[in-house]
Predict the structure.
Amino acid sequence: MAPEELPTFLPGGQSYESFGTFGSVIVATLYALIDGAIGGVLFAWLYNRCAKQEN
């Protein structure tokens, strides 16, 4: 399946483009930073929750 055929999960309905403009690169980078921060917080919360159960 080509990336163009995948559904978009980005706010604003942006889809995959192989040749993005500078602005779209900045927006995608911001999305990635926010997504990584949310994933890191969830992972840390889950880790801490599991670690407390072992003690």
Observations:
- Residues 2 and 18 are 11 Å apart (CA to CA).
- Residues 22-54 form the longest helix (33 residues).
